[in-house]
Amino acid sequence: MDWRAGVVYQVYPRSFMDSDGDGVGDLDGIAARLDHLVELGVSALWLSPIYPSPMADFGYDVSDYEDVDPVFGSLESWDRLVAEARDRDLRVLLDLVPCHSSIEHPWFREHPDWYIWGGDGDGPPNNWLSAFGGPAWSRHPQTGRWYLHSFYPEQPDLDWHNPEVVEAFQEVLRFWVDRGADGFRLDAIDRLVKDRELRDNPPATAPFGLPLHPDEAVLEPRYSRDRPEVVDALAALRAAVGDALLVGEVYVPTARMAPYLTQLDRAFVFELLHAPWEKRALRDAIEAAAALRGRPGAGPAWVFSNHDFGRLSSRFGRENERAAAVLLLTLPGTAFLYQGDEIGLANGPGAQPPHDRLGRDVCRHPMQWDASEHGGFTTGTPWLAAVDPAERNVAAQREDPASLMNLYKRLIALRRDLDPSFRVVELSPEVLTFERGSDLVALNLSSEPVQLPSGEVLLESAPGALTRGSLAGHAAAVVRSY
Ligand code: NOJ
User: Fold this and answer.
1) Separation of alpha carbons 337 and 333, rounded Å
2) How confident is the model at residue 454 (pLDDT cuts 50, 70, 90)?
3) CA 133, CA 78: separation in Å to the nearest integer?
4) What is the pLDDT of residue 1?
5) How far, in Å, from the CA of 360 to the mean position of ligand 1?
6) Which of 190, 249, 265, 341 is catalytic?
């Protein structure tokens, strides 16, 4: 099967595996745990940023795009990781952060014209707001000039109208492709290009369509994001990488995603990620995204959780985590699986004081490999405590045929055999059903059992979930030739 249609496993490097006992995960740790990915059957891994960074936004504030932060290792540990991945037929995707750099990147001092400035007046040049709350402009302490930051003030936005910026990123991409990267997840890509004239955003008259920080939601982001010119910038990225996989973090409603897919291979479907566990919301989000087309082979990237928005079992509820796994892994196209979801890791308590100012520590707790105090993640003191390693860990779930992890394994194996075709069908009010060729996927969205048409049961979300045609509440199943 084409790896691009397989499952991509998101590794949050800080929290996956620590090889040197400093309490922070690293590349050698990831390399040492690649067999877990092989066991699951995924095709590729995506690494959240590994570049040198002051870590104001845990790596999404890059101070050198062509190196590895010492806390994660070195370029040599990257080379080792790539070699180990190749040996196992796993592809490796990096996270490119082109919208902004760290304020500590030498570019900010050496090439101020690569950034977006708004003069040195008494106030910011327009009313734009940051995705993380408050104004999107801060005053540069040395010069008194206003600079734009779509996220934290430590993340000044780069000016993609400047051809030198475009060339600099083309070089970055070529650097990593030459060094073994098979593709890139593109961070905050709908914010890459802004209005040249920096016009004020109008007041919002309708909801954006996806959750936003309440501060940002009061304006319609007409001039600060999702600009038509973004397609030219994406074309330049495409030109630099050839056929490497480009996956966009395109944080716009599905109805506005098509232009991005003229250049990108995949775009995350945030409408589905944010959908409540309700039939109509899920079905509408899936149908709209499944119809997306673009460059040859382009399509949706299905995702239910990541390091920003909370863990799968916390967002959908423990009772629905198995059915959610069935849904994620039976949709047509590429699925992204966030580390730890396969063992049902829930959101944790975070830390006091918090590491992340926005409260996202809760979904960044370390991977739990075994039942020991720190879950086998580190021999030192973990940067964030393990959540519940005694209840949930890879070693125990491997041995239990009925475990969530073994369900993920079965699903990832099964999805290779599913017909590429996809069609939502309506069989019963409480059940979300779709066909993959002559196979039927059914998810019971209610808490009561429902009757399904008979057929050969290929998979059930838990042992006995589908018995004599009755699908238990909250359960899911795949039935052949129904
Ligand atoms: C999206 C990333 O996933 C998130 O973690 C980060 O804070 C923002 N983009 C800004 O880079």
Assistant:
1) 13
2) confident
3) 35
4) 79
5) 11
6) 249
Report which secondary-structure segment, H or E, holds 445: none
- Which atom from ligand 1 is nearest to the alpha carbon of 61? 11
Task: Report residue 67 CA to chain centroid gap.
Answer: 22
Please say if 220 is a catalytic residue: no
In CATH, what class is 3-101+162-193+229-415?
alpha beta
Interatomic CA distance for residues 480 and 417, integer angstroms: 11
Residues belonging to the chain: 482
Q: Say how many Å lie between the CA of residue 85 and the centre of ligand 1.
A: 26
SS3 content of the chain, % helix, strand, coil (to 5): 30, 20, 55
Helix (H, G, I), strand (E, B) or coil at 10: strand
Look at residue 69 and tell me whether its pLDDT is greater than 90. Answer: yes
Residue 273 has pLDDT above 80, yes or no: yes
Boundaries of CATH 2.60.40.1180 in the chain? 423-480
* Residue of 340, 344, 341 lying closest to 377 (CA atoms): 340
- Ligand 1 neighbours, Cβ below 6 Å, are 57, 60, 97, 151, 187-188, 249, 307-308
Which atom of ligand 1 sits closest to the CA of residue 100? 11
Q: How confident is the model at residue 120 (pLDDT cuts 50, 70, 90)?
A: confident
Q: At what angle do helices 404-415 and 321-330 cross, to 10 degrees?
A: 20
Listed in order, strand segments (DSSP E) in 194-338 are: 245-248, 266-268, 299-303, 334-338
Give CATH 3.20.20.80 domain extents, the chain. 3-101+162-193+229-415
76 among known catalytic residues: no
CA pair distance 380, 389, nearest whole angstrom: 16
Please state, as a whole number, how many other Cβ atoms lie within 10 Å of the Cβ of residue 473: 15
Write down the pTM of the prediction: 0.98
Backbone angles phi, psi at 79, to 5 degrees: -60, -40
Of the candidates 95, 250, 101, 223, the one whose C-alpha atom is nearest the C-alpha of residue 165 is: 101
Domain covering 423-480 in this structure, CATH number: 2.60.40.1180
Pick the closest to residue 81 from 170, 173, 19 (CA basis): 19
